[in-house]
Amino acid sequence: MKRGIALAIAAICLSLAAPVGAQPPPSQGRYQYHADYFPNTILQDQDGRSVRFYDDIIRGKVVAINFVYTTCTDICPLDTAQLRQVQQLLGDRLGRDVFMYSVSINGDTPEALRRFMRTYDVGPNWRFLTGTREQVTQLQRLLGLRVDDPNDLRSHNTNIVLGNERTAQWIRRSAYENPRNLVQVLTGYLQSNAPRTASATARGYSAAGEIADNSRGAYLYRTRCQSCHTIGEGDRLGPDLAGVPSSRPSAWLARWIREPDRMIAERDPVAMAMLPRYRNLPMPNLGLSEGETADIIEYIRQQDGHSRAHR
Question: Cys bridge to 33: 37, 237, 263, 291, which one at CB 3.0-4.6 A?
Answer without folding.
Answer: 37
